[in-house]
Amino acid sequence: MTRRELLGLFGGAVASPAKEPPAAPVAIGKAADYDDDLTAVLSRLFDQLGGLGRLVKGKTVTVKLNLTGSPSLRFEGRPLGATHYVHPRLVGVVLNLLGRAGARRVRLVESCWASGGPLEEYLLDCGWPVRALAAAAPGVEFENTNNLGKGKRYARLKTPPGAWIYPAYDLNQAYVDTDVFISLAKLKNHQTCGVTLALKNCFGITPASIYGDDAGLDEPNENPTTGRAAVFHFGKRGPSRSAPQEFNPASNPDPGYRVPRIVAELVAARPVDLAVIDGIQTVTGGEGPWIQGLRFVQPRVLIAGLNPAATDAVAMAVMGYNPRAGRGTPPFHNCDNTLLLAETLGIGSADLKRIEVRGLPVAEVRFPFPS
Amino acid sequence: MLLALLALSAAAWIPARWSWNEAASLELLAGTPVNCLLVEQASREFAAAAAARGVTVLAVARPGAELESVIQHAIESRLAGVVLEGAFDPAARHLAGRLLAQAGLTLIELLPRAQLRLDSEAAVIGTAQGLWPGIRVFESGAIRAAPTGSPWVETNTGFLRHLRAATDAPIWIANLPPAKTVVPVERYLGAIADAAIAGARWVVALDGELERRLAARDPKALAAWKRIAAHLKFYEDHAEWRSWKPAGQLAIIQDEQSGALLGGGIVDMIAARHVPVRVVPRQRLNAEALRGARLALNVDPASLSDSDKEVLRSFTRGGGTLLSGPPGWKFPMPDADRISLDEAQLDRLTEIWREVNSLIGRRNLGARLFNVSGMLSNLLARPDGRQAVLHLVNYTSYPAENITVHLAANYSRALLLRPEEPSRELALYRIEEGVGVEIDRISSCAALLLDWKQ
Q1: CA B250 to chain centre
Q2: Looking at CA atoms only, how far is residue A172 from chain B in angstroms?
Q3: Minimal Cα distance from B354: which residue of A?
Q4: A331 preceded by cis ω (within 30°)?
């Protein structure tokens, strides 16, 4: 057993960082539905965080969307944005506010499920108003980061000391060719990781061309048609040899061990500057319609923060969970706590006592998710 | 001459199975386009009452019936003809044909798919082996996914497209609602549209519960019947679309021996990806059939004659791309009772899809559709090429919204036609390969009527 694995057995309860991880403020607002004045609600949240202009003026901004699974899979026939995807109207408002705040270029990104085609076409398949989104701010671009996309080569992002699974990840250039990185996530559960929030959303920055089940053995497969379960969840095979391989390919194959760590490593390698969590309408019980027991709910909440771990901690509190819960405790029934792992890597604090909540208090918006 | 006249009249018949034999039941036909009833038993009075309404009555006979007796009864009751539904032996079919012809009555055969003869001079080419269209759902409630990754749509359209391309006769597809099931009205609307977009007519068949409630004139049942009628009328109002030709730039060359009569085969698989595909029956393979096509899939190269091969050589010399299938692409003729692929064949279909998909990629072969999961489409062009129609059918139980269509031609006008709703002109916008158009909502089905730029 390697030292990394030994530490891993204890989840986030070990390997405390040398100094306390950052704990930036988190703002909470309410919206009745997606027809509400989202511009006003989000503007208020961003102002409570110190203003968007300070972060994005004159900058290139990359917004990682949360589009989990194939757009052909709907839950109860509802629009994807009302269940397990971020809602296009919210995306439009974010784009508009970024434009108004002076962002020079805004790039929407996602590694589209089982597809290497243009993100614009994927969004059309989601029923999104692509032309309206393109016009919502100056310099709007779209990039499917499931392969090279418009880039010429992959960017290599190293994980910090203390990483468990990979020393570095090869990603689409969009993740380095940017000044600001935003994780625009959904408030929901996740079967493997307990919750899908701003941190887990970043699992999707990885290209299936390299980390997919049908990735090339030596070189990336630029036409991926699968997910990443064999490589990431189960470690049954490695990524394309062109990319850095696992520290220990024979390490613990439990997805509940691997995926939270991979998520934490990814966020450490590609830090999130702003986290926005869409909890206006969503689902409980899992991340998408392929999970049994899913339920449509309307928490009517929006959460934003400058630190993804802190933002997720507050979001978990809104969901009625203890953000410091350990493995075996809801919602981390069969997995380690991604937030604590992120804390271990110095990404941010999951300690509610250290996080200032601005706007509405947690108690006012608490919407218990299943235990 | 007589056959031609019979065919002419049969071409106008809009059929429905009718379980009632009281004249009062005919009141239900008021305001509907249904004008041809398939009945198990009909009295002379019923036939007369129907005739007074301009409605044709046909007697249905199934294997095991006393055919001569059925035909004699039809003659005495002054019915218009007899429908043989099922697998009759050749002698019985010959006898029925002879007796009915002598009496000046029409013979309609709803044959097993395997017995269809597409080059016959039958008044109607029909089968009672229709799939009941809709999204396939397992007992667990899970939705079966297609090789394309979309929910799998049970459809007759692939089979019917082949029939439409192989014969000019009217085509009837008959089936029965799932047993012991109260069928939501939307499923009936899907069955109507599923046949109509491929140029065929669905033989209306209602579930027992709906029939019972209709007989009692239950308002909700009458409302459902009104919707069914509106959908029938929608396609009958545009009967000319049946003669329009597939406008897709992907041609698939197949025949009855290579799997064309099976449901859920290669054509259905490609159509599920909303790639406009034109079926070219091997017997009708010529340069004209491939005009405008950019890609051709040859399902069974071994079946081609020398002249067929020359047609394909000319196609490739002219810049077309030809993909010839290995022997595994050919699916054998179905058994009498089987009309769709078995599990092993479905696995092969997945492999075929990978190859086809790698060939097609993101090419626009007439139209590309977005956000159309659980839907099927068919792109047809008027023979003079001045108009096209894009049929859309929604098989899900919820309205389809925010659909985008990218058309690979410079159409100048798009008119959205939907049953039960007024038509509406849609704005077109320029895209790289032609024009784009957005459709806000489709409940059951729609047709996008496109005018070619002058």
Answers
A1: 19
A2: 21
A3: A225
A4: yes
Give the global pTM: 0.91
Minimal C-alpha gap between B396 and chain A (Å)? 8
Where do we find the tokens 């009104």? B226
B429, closest residue in chain A (CA to CA): A131
Closest among A337, A309, A310 to A325, alpha carbons compared: A337
Q: How confident is the model at residue B137 (pLDDT cuts 50, 70, 90)?
A: low
Q: Where are the domains of chain A?
A: 3-365
Instruction: For residue B402, list chain A residues with Cβ-Cβ distance below 8 A.
Output: 127-129
Q: What is the pLDDT of residues A88-119, one digit of tens each?
A: 999 999 999 999 999 999 999 999 999 999 99
Residue B145 binned pLDDT confidence (cut-offs 50, 70, 90): very low
Q: pLDDT tier at B454 (50, 70, 90 boundaries)?
A: low
- DSSP letters spanning B21-52: -SGGGGGGGTTS---EEEESS--HHHHHHHHH
How large is the average pLDDT for residues B190-202? 98
Indicate the residue of A126, A131, A223 with minimum beta-carbon distance to B371.
A126
Q: Which residues of A touch B404 (CB under 8 A)?
A: 124, 130
B180 has a chain A CB within 8 A of its CB = no
Over residues A311-329, the pLDDT tens digits come to 999 999 999 999 999 999 9
Question: What does the alpha-carbon distance between residue B168 and residue A361 come to, in Å, rounded to a whole number?
Answer: 71
Chain A residue numbers with beta carbons less than 8 Å from the beta carbon of B149 are: 70, 72, 114
Is the per-residue pLDDT at A12 higher than 50?
Answer: no
The answer, for B404 touching chain A at a CB cutoff of 8 Å, is yes
pLDDT of residue B150: 63
Q: Compare CB distances from B149 to A70, A127, A131 and report the shortest one's residue.
A: A70
Contacts of residue B398 in chain A, CB cutoff 8 Å? 74, 76-77
Degrees (nearest 5) of the Cα angle B422, B426, B430?
170
Contacts of B403 in chain A (CB under 8 A): 127
Could you tell me which residues are beta bridge partners of residue B16?
B37, B204
At B315, list the tokens: 């196609």
Burial A72-94 (b: 16+ CB within 10 A, else e): bbbbeeebbbbbbbbbbbbbbbb
Instruction: Please state which of the ranges A13-22, A179-188, A229-238, A285-294 shows the lowest mean pLDDT.
Output: A13-22
Q: Give the whole-angstrom CA distance, residue A155 versus residue A137.
A: 27
Give the angle B200-B206-B210 at the CA atoms, nearest 5°.
150
Residues 6+ apart with CB under 8 A from B138: B144
Domains parsed from chain B with CATH numbers: 2-243 (3.20.20.70), 248-360 (3.40.50), 367-452 (2.60.40.1180)
Instruction: Average the pLDDT over A203-231 and give the result.
Output: 96
Q: Look at residue A14 and tell me whether its pLDDT is greater than 50.
A: no
ipTM for the whole complex: 0.90
Model confidence pLDDT, tens digit, residues B54-71:
999 999 999 999 999 999
CB contact under 8 Å between B371 and A125, yes or no, is yes
Query: Which pLDDT value is given to residue B326?
Result: 82
On whether any CB of chain A is under 8 Å from the CB of B151, the answer is yes
Is beta strand A26-30 parallel, antiparallel or unpaired with respect to B15-18? unpaired
- DSSP secondary structure string, B376-439? EEEEEE-TTSSEEEEEEEE-SSS-EEEEEEEESS-EEEEEEEETTEEEEEE-EEEETTEEEEEE
Task: State the Rg of chain B over Cα.
Answer: 22
The sign one gets for the Cα dihedral B400, B402, B408, B412 is: positive
Kindly report the average pLDDT of chain A as a whole number.
Answer: 95
B52 touches chain A (CB under 8 A): no
Of A91, A100, A98, A112, nearest to A61 (Cα)?
A: A98
Give the residue numbers in A contacting B (CB under 8 Å), as ranges.
70-74, 76-77, 79, 114, 117, 121, 124-131, 223
